[in-house]
Protein backbone atom coordinates (compact mmCIF):
# COMPACT_ATOMS: atom_id res chain seq x y z
CA UNK A 1 0.00 0.00 0.00
CA UNK A 2 1.40 3.39 -1.02
CA UNK A 3 2.10 5.76 1.87
CA UNK A 4 0.51 9.20 1.96
CA UNK A 5 3.95 10.79 1.65
CA UNK A 6 4.66 9.03 -1.64
CA UNK A 7 1.14 9.78 -2.88
CA UNK A 8 1.78 13.48 -2.23
CA UNK A 9 5.24 13.37 -3.82
CA UNK A 10 4.24 11.34 -6.83
CA UNK A 11 6.87 8.65 -7.33
CA UNK A 12 7.39 9.72 -10.95
CA UNK A 13 8.36 13.22 -9.77
CA UNK A 14 11.25 12.04 -7.59
CA UNK A 15 12.72 9.25 -9.71
CA UNK A 16 16.44 9.83 -10.07
CA UNK A 17 16.48 12.98 -7.95
CA UNK A 18 19.21 13.63 -5.40
CA UNK A 19 18.61 13.30 -1.68
CA UNK A 20 18.75 17.09 -1.38
CA UNK A 21 16.13 17.55 -4.10
CA UNK A 22 13.86 14.97 -2.50
CA UNK A 23 14.23 16.65 0.91
CA UNK A 24 13.29 19.98 -0.66
CA UNK A 25 10.13 18.49 -2.17
CA UNK A 26 9.11 17.02 1.19
CA UNK A 27 9.85 20.36 2.86
CA UNK A 28 7.59 22.06 0.30
CA UNK A 29 4.78 19.64 1.18
CA UNK A 30 5.20 20.48 4.87
CA UNK A 31 5.33 24.24 4.35
CA UNK A 32 2.24 24.09 2.17
CA UNK A 33 0.30 22.04 4.72
CA UNK A 34 -0.07 18.95 2.56
CA UNK A 35 1.87 17.06 5.22
CA UNK A 36 0.64 18.00 8.68
CA UNK A 37 2.61 18.59 11.85
CA UNK A 38 2.77 15.39 13.88
CA UNK A 39 2.03 13.17 10.89
CA UNK A 40 3.97 9.92 10.87
CA UNK A 41 6.16 9.33 7.82
CA UNK A 42 7.28 5.97 6.40
CA UNK A 43 10.41 4.41 7.85
CA UNK A 44 13.66 4.86 5.92
CA UNK A 45 13.47 1.25 4.75
CA UNK A 46 9.80 1.51 3.70
CA UNK A 47 10.38 4.80 1.85
CA UNK A 48 13.36 3.31 0.03
CA UNK A 49 11.24 0.37 -1.12
CA UNK A 50 8.39 2.60 -2.29
CA UNK A 51 10.68 4.94 -4.22
CA UNK A 52 12.98 2.13 -5.39
CA UNK A 53 15.94 4.03 -4.00
CA UNK A 54 18.78 2.99 -1.72
CA UNK A 55 18.39 2.99 2.04
CA UNK A 56 21.33 5.42 2.27
CA UNK A 57 19.42 7.93 0.10
CA UNK A 58 16.31 7.94 2.28
CA UNK A 59 18.46 8.10 5.42
CA UNK A 60 20.15 11.17 3.94
CA UNK A 61 16.76 12.72 3.07
CA UNK A 62 15.41 12.40 6.60
CA UNK A 63 18.74 13.57 7.98
CA UNK A 64 18.58 16.82 5.97
CA UNK A 65 15.01 17.42 7.07
CA UNK A 66 15.89 16.74 10.69
CA UNK A 67 18.80 19.20 10.66
CA UNK A 68 16.46 21.93 9.36
CA UNK A 69 13.79 21.04 11.94
CA UNK A 70 11.16 19.61 9.59
CA UNK A 71 11.07 16.09 11.03
CA UNK A 72 11.82 14.53 14.39
CA UNK A 73 13.27 11.02 14.56
CA UNK A 74 13.49 8.54 17.39
CA UNK A 75 16.12 5.82 17.16
CA UNK A 76 14.31 2.60 16.39
CA UNK A 77 11.02 4.51 16.41
CA UNK A 78 8.97 6.78 14.17
CA UNK A 79 9.73 9.80 11.99
CA UNK A 80 7.18 12.59 12.33
CA UNK A 81 6.60 15.98 10.70
CA UNK A 82 7.57 19.07 12.70
CA UNK A 83 8.13 22.75 12.00
CA UNK A 84 11.32 24.65 12.84
CA UNK A 85 11.19 26.57 16.11
CA UNK A 86 12.33 29.65 14.18
CA UNK A 87 9.35 29.59 11.83
CA UNK A 88 7.51 32.29 13.76
CA UNK A 89 10.44 34.70 13.32
CA UNK A 90 10.74 34.63 9.56
CA UNK A 91 10.30 37.66 7.37
CA UNK A 92 7.77 37.38 4.52
CA UNK A 93 4.90 35.83 6.53
CA UNK A 94 5.02 38.68 9.05
CA UNK A 95 6.19 41.26 6.47
CA UNK A 96 3.49 43.81 5.72
CA UNK A 97 4.85 44.11 2.17
CA UNK A 98 4.05 40.46 1.40
CA UNK A 99 0.94 39.79 -0.66
CA UNK A 100 -1.02 36.76 0.53
CA UNK A 101 -2.89 35.00 -2.27
CA UNK A 102 -3.80 32.08 -0.03
CA UNK A 103 -6.76 34.19 1.14
CA UNK A 104 -9.47 34.60 -1.51
CA UNK A 105 -11.70 37.03 0.33
CA UNK A 106 -12.64 40.70 0.08
CA UNK A 107 -12.54 43.35 2.75
CA UNK A 108 -15.82 44.33 4.40
CA UNK A 109 -18.80 45.68 2.53
CA UNK A 110 -19.29 49.46 2.89
CA UNK A 111 -22.69 48.79 4.48
CA UNK A 112 -21.22 46.82 7.40
CA UNK A 113 -20.73 49.82 9.69
CA UNK A 114 -24.28 51.16 9.20
CA UNK A 115 -25.72 47.66 9.63
CA UNK A 116 -23.78 47.33 12.89
CA UNK A 117 -25.20 50.61 14.20
CA UNK A 118 -28.74 49.63 13.21
CA UNK A 119 -28.31 46.25 14.91
CA UNK A 120 -27.54 47.67 18.36
CA UNK A 121 -31.17 48.26 19.48
CA UNK A 122 -31.93 44.65 18.47
CA UNK A 123 -28.99 43.45 20.56
CA UNK A 124 -30.02 45.64 23.50
CA UNK A 125 -33.50 44.10 23.46
CA UNK A 126 -31.89 40.67 24.02
CA UNK A 127 -30.11 41.61 27.24
CA UNK A 128 -32.84 40.11 29.36
CA UNK A 129 -32.31 36.68 27.76
CA UNK A 130 -29.59 34.17 28.58
CA UNK A 131 -27.44 35.16 25.61
CA UNK A 132 -27.16 31.59 24.33
CA UNK A 133 -28.60 30.90 20.89
CA UNK A 134 -28.32 27.22 20.02
CA UNK A 135 -30.35 27.25 16.78
CA UNK A 136 -30.01 30.97 16.07
CA UNK A 137 -32.17 34.07 16.38
CA UNK A 138 -35.63 33.57 14.89
CA UNK A 139 -35.32 36.80 12.87
CA UNK A 140 -32.08 35.63 11.28
CA UNK A 141 -33.36 32.15 10.54
CA UNK A 142 -36.41 33.78 8.91
CA UNK A 143 -34.14 35.95 6.76
CA UNK A 144 -31.95 33.03 5.66
CA UNK A 145 -35.03 30.88 4.93
CA UNK A 146 -36.51 33.71 2.86
CA UNK A 147 -33.34 33.93 0.79
CA UNK A 148 -33.57 30.20 -0.01
CA UNK A 149 -37.24 30.67 -0.95
CA UNK A 150 -36.36 33.56 -3.28
CA UNK A 151 -33.80 31.32 -5.00
CA UNK A 152 -36.39 28.63 -5.72
CA UNK A 153 -36.24 26.43 -2.61
CA UNK A 154 -39.20 26.97 -0.26
CA UNK A 155 -37.74 26.94 3.23
CA UNK A 156 -39.05 27.41 6.77
CA UNK A 157 -37.09 28.90 9.66
CA UNK A 158 -37.28 25.53 11.44
CA UNK A 159 -35.11 24.09 8.65
CA UNK A 160 -32.30 26.57 9.41
CA UNK A 161 -29.57 26.51 12.06
CA UNK A 162 -27.22 29.48 12.48
CA UNK A 163 -23.53 28.62 12.94
CA UNK A 164 -20.18 30.37 13.35
CA UNK A 165 -19.30 30.20 9.66
CA UNK A 166 -19.64 27.58 6.92
CA UNK A 167 -16.60 25.54 7.95
CA UNK A 168 -17.97 25.34 11.47
CA UNK A 169 -21.28 24.23 9.95
CA UNK A 170 -19.53 21.50 7.96
CA UNK A 171 -17.69 20.24 11.02
CA UNK A 172 -20.96 20.17 12.97
CA UNK A 173 -22.55 18.11 10.20
CA UNK A 174 -19.62 15.68 10.26
CA UNK A 175 -19.78 15.44 14.05
CA UNK A 176 -23.46 14.52 13.72
CA UNK A 177 -23.56 12.10 10.79
CA UNK A 178 -19.89 11.20 10.30
CA UNK A 179 -18.76 7.57 10.14
CA UNK A 180 -15.08 6.76 10.47
CA UNK A 181 -13.78 4.48 7.76
CA UNK A 182 -16.57 5.29 5.32
CA UNK A 183 -16.01 6.79 1.88
CA UNK A 184 -16.64 10.44 1.01
CA UNK A 185 -16.89 11.67 -2.57
CA UNK A 186 -15.08 14.99 -3.04
CA UNK A 187 -14.40 17.19 -6.01
CA UNK A 188 -10.85 17.53 -7.24
CA UNK A 189 -9.85 20.31 -6.79
CA UNK A 190 -11.83 21.55 -3.81
CA UNK A 191 -11.64 23.64 -0.62
CA UNK A 192 -8.56 22.34 1.27
CA UNK A 193 -9.96 22.77 4.78
CA UNK A 194 -12.99 20.66 3.90
CA UNK A 195 -10.59 17.86 2.93
CA UNK A 196 -8.82 18.29 6.26
CA UNK A 197 -12.12 18.09 8.13
CA UNK A 198 -13.08 14.89 6.31
CA UNK A 199 -9.67 13.37 7.06
CA UNK A 200 -10.03 14.32 10.72
CA UNK A 201 -13.38 12.53 10.89
CA UNK A 202 -11.85 9.38 9.44
CA UNK A 203 -13.27 9.40 5.91
CA UNK A 204 -11.59 7.74 2.94
CA UNK A 205 -11.74 10.25 0.09
CA UNK A 206 -12.90 9.36 -3.41
CA UNK A 207 -12.18 12.21 -5.86
CA UNK A 208 -14.17 13.27 -8.91
CA UNK A 209 -12.69 15.79 -11.38
CA UNK A 210 -13.83 19.39 -11.86
CA UNK A 211 -12.33 21.96 -14.21
CA UNK A 212 -13.20 25.43 -15.45
CA UNK A 213 -15.45 23.74 -17.99
CA UNK A 214 -17.39 21.94 -15.26
CA UNK A 215 -17.94 18.47 -13.83
CA UNK A 216 -17.70 15.02 -15.38
CA UNK A 217 -21.28 14.09 -14.56
CA UNK A 218 -20.84 10.51 -15.75
CA UNK A 219 -17.84 10.07 -13.46
CA UNK A 220 -19.84 11.36 -10.49
CA UNK A 221 -22.73 9.00 -11.24
CA UNK A 222 -20.44 6.00 -11.76
CA UNK A 223 -18.54 6.78 -8.56
CA UNK A 224 -21.72 7.11 -6.54
CA UNK A 225 -23.09 3.82 -7.91
CA UNK A 226 -19.80 1.92 -7.60
CA UNK A 227 -18.43 3.27 -4.30
CA UNK A 228 -21.73 4.10 -2.57
CA UNK A 229 -20.06 6.76 -0.43
CA UNK A 230 -21.66 7.68 2.85
CA UNK A 231 -21.23 11.37 2.06
CA UNK A 232 -20.50 13.64 -0.89
CA UNK A 233 -19.15 17.18 -0.48
CA UNK A 234 -19.90 19.47 -3.45
CA UNK A 235 -19.50 23.17 -4.28
CA UNK A 236 -21.95 23.54 -7.19
CA UNK A 237 -22.05 27.35 -7.46
CA UNK A 238 -18.91 29.21 -8.55
CA UNK A 239 -16.86 26.25 -7.47
CA UNK A 240 -13.78 26.99 -5.35
CA UNK A 241 -11.27 27.13 -7.01
CA UNK A 242 -12.40 26.59 -10.64
CA UNK A 243 -15.36 29.02 -10.72
CA UNK A 244 -17.59 26.50 -12.54
CA UNK A 245 -21.35 26.22 -11.93
CA UNK A 246 -23.31 22.96 -12.06
CA UNK A 247 -26.41 23.14 -14.35
CA UNK A 248 -29.88 22.35 -13.01
CA UNK A 249 -30.19 19.18 -15.10
CA UNK A 250 -26.98 17.81 -13.62
CA UNK A 251 -28.06 18.80 -10.11
CA UNK A 252 -31.26 16.83 -10.55
CA UNK A 253 -29.51 13.69 -11.79
CA UNK A 254 -26.79 13.81 -9.12
CA UNK A 255 -29.33 14.31 -6.33
CA UNK A 256 -31.42 11.39 -7.61
CA UNK A 257 -28.40 9.10 -7.90
CA UNK A 258 -27.17 10.03 -4.43
CA UNK A 259 -30.59 9.37 -2.96
CA UNK A 260 -30.80 5.96 -4.69
CA UNK A 261 -27.54 4.79 -3.06
CA UNK A 262 -28.14 6.42 0.33
CA UNK A 263 -25.42 9.08 0.05
CA UNK A 264 -25.76 12.28 2.08
CA UNK A 265 -25.10 15.29 -0.17
CA UNK A 266 -23.42 18.13 1.72
CA UNK A 267 -23.53 21.24 -0.45
CA UNK A 268 -21.27 24.22 0.26
CA UNK A 269 -22.93 27.45 -0.90
CA UNK A 270 -20.33 29.84 0.51
CA UNK A 271 -19.69 31.13 -3.01
CA UNK A 272 -23.27 30.93 -4.32
CA UNK A 273 -23.91 34.70 -4.31
CA UNK A 274 -20.64 35.69 -6.04
CA UNK A 275 -22.08 36.28 -9.52
CA UNK A 276 -20.38 38.67 -11.93
CA UNK A 277 -21.93 37.95 -15.32
CA UNK A 278 -22.96 34.28 -15.41
CA UNK A 279 -26.21 35.17 -17.20
CA UNK A 280 -28.36 32.51 -15.51
CA UNK A 281 -29.25 31.46 -11.97
CA UNK A 282 -29.53 27.80 -10.95
CA UNK A 283 -31.82 26.55 -8.22
CA UNK A 284 -30.18 25.41 -4.97
CA UNK A 285 -29.13 21.76 -5.23
CA UNK A 286 -31.29 20.99 -2.19
CA UNK A 287 -34.34 21.71 -4.38
CA UNK A 288 -33.67 18.41 -6.13
CA UNK A 289 -33.35 15.96 -3.25
CA UNK A 290 -34.52 15.41 0.35
CA UNK A 291 -31.15 14.12 1.63
CA UNK A 292 -29.28 17.33 0.77
CA UNK A 293 -27.67 19.32 3.60
CA UNK A 294 -26.65 22.86 2.66
CA UNK A 295 -24.07 25.03 4.41
CA UNK A 296 -23.47 28.71 3.69
CA UNK A 297 -22.12 31.89 5.23
CA UNK A 298 -21.85 35.67 5.14
CA UNK A 299 -18.05 35.63 4.93
CA UNK A 300 -17.68 36.14 1.16
CA UNK A 301 -20.52 38.62 0.66
CA UNK A 302 -20.09 40.75 3.77
CA UNK A 303 -16.82 40.14 5.62
CA UNK A 304 -14.72 37.19 6.74
CA UNK A 305 -14.40 38.75 10.18
CA UNK A 306 -18.12 38.32 10.82
CA UNK A 307 -18.37 34.64 11.63
CA UNK A 308 -21.94 33.88 10.58
CA UNK A 309 -22.96 30.74 8.73
CA UNK A 310 -25.92 28.41 8.51
CA UNK A 311 -27.13 24.91 7.82
CA UNK A 312 -30.28 24.17 5.84
CA UNK A 313 -31.63 20.65 6.32
CA UNK A 314 -34.90 18.86 7.04
CA UNK A 315 -36.34 19.20 10.53
CA UNK A 316 -35.21 15.72 11.61
CA UNK A 317 -31.60 16.55 10.72
CA UNK A 318 -31.81 19.93 12.46
CA UNK A 319 -32.98 18.11 15.58
CA UNK A 320 -29.95 15.81 15.41
CA UNK A 321 -27.61 18.75 14.90
CA UNK A 322 -29.11 20.55 17.89
CA UNK A 323 -28.49 17.49 20.05
CA UNK A 324 -24.80 17.38 19.09
CA UNK A 325 -23.92 21.07 19.11
CA UNK A 326 -23.80 21.64 22.91
CA UNK A 327 -20.93 19.17 23.19
CA UNK A 328 -18.56 21.74 21.69
CA UNK A 329 -20.45 25.06 21.39
CA UNK A 330 -23.54 26.69 22.90
CA UNK A 331 -24.49 29.00 20.06
CA UNK A 332 -23.40 31.79 17.74
CA UNK A 333 -22.49 35.31 18.91
CA UNK A 334 -25.59 37.49 19.14
CA UNK A 335 -24.04 40.72 17.86
CA UNK A 336 -22.99 39.10 14.58
CA UNK A 337 -26.46 37.59 14.23
CA UNK A 338 -28.10 40.97 14.74
CA UNK A 339 -25.82 42.53 12.12
CA UNK A 340 -26.56 39.70 9.68
CA UNK A 341 -30.31 40.36 9.98
CA UNK A 342 -29.71 43.92 8.81
CA UNK A 343 -27.40 42.90 5.97
CA UNK A 344 -29.75 40.23 4.60
CA UNK A 345 -32.42 42.89 4.29
CA UNK A 346 -30.17 44.65 1.77
CA UNK A 347 -29.12 41.68 -0.36
CA UNK A 348 -29.65 43.38 -3.77
CA UNK A 349 -27.27 46.20 -2.83
CA UNK A 350 -24.88 43.76 -1.19
CA UNK A 351 -24.65 41.41 -4.17
CA UNK A 352 -24.34 44.36 -6.59
CA UNK A 353 -21.36 45.65 -4.60
CA UNK A 354 -19.77 42.18 -4.58
CA UNK A 355 -20.25 41.81 -8.34
CA UNK A 356 -18.60 45.18 -8.96
CA UNK A 357 -15.62 44.34 -6.77
CA UNK A 358 -15.15 40.91 -8.33
CA UNK A 359 -15.45 42.37 -11.85
CA UNK A 360 -12.63 44.82 -11.09
CA UNK A 361 -10.53 42.07 -9.53
CA UNK A 362 -11.05 39.79 -12.51
CA UNK A 363 -10.02 42.53 -14.93
CA UNK A 364 -6.87 43.19 -12.88
CA UNK A 365 -5.86 39.52 -12.95
CA UNK A 366 -6.51 39.31 -16.70
CA UNK A 367 -4.42 42.43 -17.31
CA UNK A 368 -1.57 41.09 -15.19
CA UNK A 369 -1.54 37.75 -16.96
CA UNK A 370 -1.07 39.48 -20.31
CA UNK A 371 2.52 40.20 -19.30
CA UNK A 372 3.26 36.54 -18.47
CA UNK A 373 4.13 34.38 -21.43
CA UNK A 374 2.01 31.21 -21.84
CA UNK A 375 -0.54 32.17 -19.16
CA UNK A 376 -4.02 33.56 -19.76
CA UNK A 377 -7.25 34.18 -17.90
CA UNK A 378 -9.78 31.32 -18.17
CA UNK A 379 -13.48 32.10 -18.38
CA UNK A 380 -14.46 33.27 -14.90
CA UNK A 381 -18.08 34.39 -14.51
CA UNK A 382 -17.96 34.72 -10.75
CA UNK A 383 -16.60 33.16 -7.60
CA UNK A 384 -13.38 33.78 -5.76
CA UNK A 385 -10.61 32.99 -8.20
CA UNK A 386 -9.20 32.16 -11.59
CA UNK A 387 -7.97 28.58 -12.02
CA UNK A 388 -4.92 28.78 -14.26
CA UNK A 389 -3.44 26.07 -16.45
CA UNK A 390 0.34 26.53 -16.24
CA UNK A 391 0.99 24.23 -19.18
CA UNK A 392 3.58 22.23 -17.21
CA UNK A 393 3.78 20.56 -13.76
CA UNK A 394 5.55 23.49 -12.06
CA UNK A 395 2.95 24.72 -9.57
CA UNK A 396 4.89 23.88 -6.40
CA UNK A 397 8.10 25.21 -7.92
CA UNK A 398 6.33 28.44 -8.85
CA UNK A 399 4.84 28.72 -5.37
CA UNK A 400 8.28 28.45 -3.79
CA UNK A 401 9.77 30.94 -6.26
CA UNK A 402 6.94 33.39 -5.52
CA UNK A 403 7.94 33.49 -1.86
CA UNK A 404 11.32 34.91 -2.87
CA UNK A 405 9.35 37.87 -4.27
CA UNK A 406 7.09 38.38 -1.24
CA UNK A 407 4.12 36.52 -2.72
CA UNK A 408 2.33 33.77 -0.76
CA UNK A 409 0.77 31.51 -3.34
CA UNK A 410 -0.65 28.03 -2.60
CA UNK A 411 0.17 25.55 -5.40
CA UNK A 412 -2.43 23.49 -7.21
CA UNK A 413 -1.84 20.29 -5.21
CA UNK A 414 -3.01 22.12 -2.07
CA UNK A 415 -6.54 21.76 -3.47
CA UNK A 416 -6.25 18.04 -4.24
CA UNK A 417 -6.54 14.76 -2.37
CA UNK A 418 -3.27 13.20 -3.47
CA UNK A 419 -0.62 15.73 -4.46
CA UNK A 420 -1.82 16.07 -8.06
CA UNK A 421 -2.78 19.22 -10.05
CA UNK A 422 0.81 20.43 -10.44
CA UNK A 423 -0.25 22.14 -13.69
CA UNK A 424 -2.79 24.30 -11.88
CA UNK A 425 -2.72 27.50 -9.85
CA UNK A 426 -5.45 29.46 -8.05
CA UNK A 427 -5.29 33.26 -8.35
CA UNK A 428 -7.87 35.16 -6.24
CA UNK A 429 -9.90 37.89 -7.96
CA UNK A 430 -10.90 39.37 -4.61
CA UNK A 431 -8.10 41.86 -3.91
CA UNK A 432 -8.33 45.57 -4.82
CA UNK A 433 -7.11 46.13 -8.41
CA UNK A 434 -3.97 48.00 -7.38
CA UNK A 435 -2.98 45.22 -4.98
CA UNK A 436 -3.71 42.62 -7.63
CA UNK A 437 -1.55 44.50 -10.15
CA UNK A 438 1.39 44.37 -7.74
CA UNK A 439 0.76 40.67 -7.05
CA UNK A 440 0.78 39.90 -10.77
CA UNK A 441 4.08 41.73 -11.21
CA UNK A 442 5.59 39.54 -8.49
CA UNK A 443 4.05 36.45 -10.09
CA UNK A 444 5.70 37.40 -13.39
CA UNK A 445 9.10 37.62 -11.68
CA UNK A 446 8.57 34.19 -10.07
CA UNK A 447 7.41 32.76 -13.41
CA UNK A 448 10.53 34.10 -15.11
CA UNK A 449 12.65 32.47 -12.38
CA UNK A 450 10.99 29.11 -12.95
CA UNK A 451 11.21 29.32 -16.74
CA UNK A 452 14.90 30.26 -16.58
CA UNK A 453 15.70 27.52 -14.09
CA UNK A 454 16.87 30.04 -11.51
CA UNK A 455 14.51 29.22 -8.66
CA UNK A 456 15.70 28.80 -5.09
CA UNK A 457 13.37 27.04 -2.68
CA UNK A 458 12.83 29.03 0.49
CA UNK A 459 12.89 26.90 3.60
CA UNK A 460 11.95 29.48 6.22
CA UNK A 461 8.28 30.07 5.47
CA UNK A 462 5.58 29.03 7.93
CA UNK A 463 2.59 27.35 6.32
CA UNK A 464 -0.67 29.27 6.13
CA UNK A 465 -4.33 28.53 5.84
CA UNK A 466 -6.01 28.58 2.43
CA UNK A 467 -9.29 30.50 2.35
Characterize this entry briefly:
The chain is α/β, with parallel strands linked by helices. It is built from 17 helices and 15 strands. The protein has three domains: 80 residues, Winged helix-like DNA-binding domain superfamily/Winged helix DNA-binding domain (Arc Repressor Mutant, subunit A), CATH 1.10.10.10; 123 residues, Aspartate Aminotransferase, domain 1; 234 residues, Aspartate Aminotransferase, domain 2.
Helix and strand topology:
Elements lengths: L3 H6 L1 H4 L4 H13 L8 E2 L2 H8 L3 H14 L2 E3 L5 E3 L9 H4 L4 E2 L11 H13 L13 H13 L9 E4 L2 H12 L5 E6 L3 H9 L3 E8 L2 E2 L1 H11 L3 E4 L13 H14 L2 E5 L23 E6 L11 E4 L2 H10 L9 H11 L2 H23 L15 E5 L5 H9 L3 E2 L15 E5 L4 H20 L15
Parallel strand pairs: 4-14, 6-7, 6-9, 9-10, 10-11
Antiparallel strand pairs: 1-3, 2-3, 5-12, 7-8, 11-12, 13-15
Helix pairs in contact: 3-5, 4-5, 7-14, 8-14, 9-10, 11-12, 15-17, 16-17
What does this protein structure show overall?
The protein has 3 domains: 4-83, Orthogonal Bundle (Arc Repressor Mutant, subunit A), CATH 1.10.10; 90-108 and 349-452, Aspartate Aminotransferase, domain 1; 112-345, Type I PLP-dependent aspartate aminotransferase-like (Major domain) (Aspartate Aminotransferase, domain 2, 3-Layer(aba) Sandwich). It has 17 helices and 15 strands. The chain has helices at residues 4-9, 11-14, 19-31, 44-51, 55-68, 91-94, 112-124, 138-150, 166-177, 192-200, 217-227, 248-261, 315-324, 334-344, 347-369, 395-403, 433-452, and strands at 40-41, 71-73, 79-81, 99-100, 160-163, 183-188, 204-211, 214-215, 231-234, 264-268, 292-297, 309-312, 385-389, 407-408, 424-428. The strands form 4 sheets. An 8-stranded mixed beta sheet has the order 5-12-11-10-9-6-7-8, sandwiched between helices. The chain is of the alpha/beta class and 467 residues long. The model is unreliable at 86-94 and 456-463 (pLDDT under 50).
